[in-house]
User: Which sequence fits this backbone?
């Protein structure tokens, strides 16, 4: 694999390639973008291009030379991918990196360290890392990967060139899932909608999604215009509302948004060829007749707010109860 094989991310790749051709590669980069979006893949291809034996200042790796192959197999002595041990990156991992930095590269042109999960550093680690970023040794490139820049100290942020990775466009992504991962069109479309443009996340949630009873969910959300208190409680009970199930609940709410989105498409466009849940056409058509557009849009808004609140650590049970109240 090389840059040209990476789906999307044209802007970050162009920036890095321009840095190579203009000989303006800096010592520290910060790649920001959601989990699984492809940051480490781009970082590794960058390391390959920087060290490729087919020549200096290549904008892309040859993918054939021994350097490229070693990096692909994580066997290159000058290119390291540092991943968290347990929940966070530990200070010892940075100390080891610093020891290695004292020497020139063994065989490559540049030593490249890729620190994944830089937004999950043990508290004492940031300061240790800062020292390295302040006085980076020659021939070194440190690439920090982070999902959220807000967990990174401003002192670290200011010493890195930040490069943002945007979610992949949905159509491009769902084509890729069908082509490369052999998924059915409808499944690919659903996964692309739910994974926020992140291939890693899509593959991670594939199994979980298969277990969500979509038809039941649609009927639960939209089956009745008004529910009695008992029915509301029963409906909340049926959802995974324990704090430990936050991720699962968030996924169910996101799935519910795609169901409601389809219902709105049927209501407005009166056509079913663009549905994400094309297997639920009959149910959608029947329900679309019962609802007016403004109620559907209102519910979408409430669902979205609840999903965001739960993603942002709000109390799961209370959020669901509040949602059911505004639902009425
Ligand atoms: Zn090469």
Assistant:
């Amino acid at each position: 694999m090389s840059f040209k094989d990476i789906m999307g991310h044209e802007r970050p790749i162009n920036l890095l390639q321009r840095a190579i051709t203009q000989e303006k590669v800096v010592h520290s980069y910060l790649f920001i973008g959601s989990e699984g979006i492809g940051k480490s893949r781009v970082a590794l291809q960058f390391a390959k291009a920087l060290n490729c034996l087919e020549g200096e200042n290549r904008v892309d790796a040859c993918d054939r030379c021994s350097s490229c192959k070693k990096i692909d197999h994580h066997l290159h002595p000058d290119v390291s991918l540092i991943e968290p041990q347990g929940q966070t990156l530990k200070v010892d991992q940075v100390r080891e990196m610093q020891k290695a930095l004292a020497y020139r590269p063994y065989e490559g042109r540049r030593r490249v360290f890729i620190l994944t999960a830089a937004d999950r550093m043990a508290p004492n680690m940031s300061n240790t890392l800062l020292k390295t970023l302040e006085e980076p040794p020659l021939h070194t490139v440190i690439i920090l990967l982070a999902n959220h820049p807000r967990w990174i100290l401003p002192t670290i942020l200011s010493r890195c060139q930040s490069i943002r990775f945007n979610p992949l466009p949905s159509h491009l992504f769902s084509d890729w899932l069908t082509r490369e991962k052999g998924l059915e069109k409808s499944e690919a479309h659903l996964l692309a909608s739910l994974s926020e443009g992140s291939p890693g996340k899509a593959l991670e949630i594939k199994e979980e999604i298969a277990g969500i009873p979509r038809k039941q969910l649609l009927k639960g959300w939209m089956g009745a215009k008004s529910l009695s208190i008992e029915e509301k409680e029963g409906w909340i009970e049926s959802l995974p509302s324990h704090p430990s199930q936050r991720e699962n609940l968030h996924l169910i709410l996101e799935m519910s948004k795609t169901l409601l989105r389809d219902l709105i498409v049927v209501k407005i466009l009166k056509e079913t060829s663009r549905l994400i849940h094309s297997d639920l056409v009959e149910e959608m058509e029947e329900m679309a007749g019962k609802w007016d557009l403004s109620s559907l849009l209102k519910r979408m808004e409430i669902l979205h707010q609840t999903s965001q609140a739960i993603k942002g650590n709000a109390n799961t049970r209370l959020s669901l109860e509040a949602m059911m109240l505004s639902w009425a």
Q: What stands out?
A: The longest helix spans residues 246-269. The two ends are 53 Å apart (CA to CA).
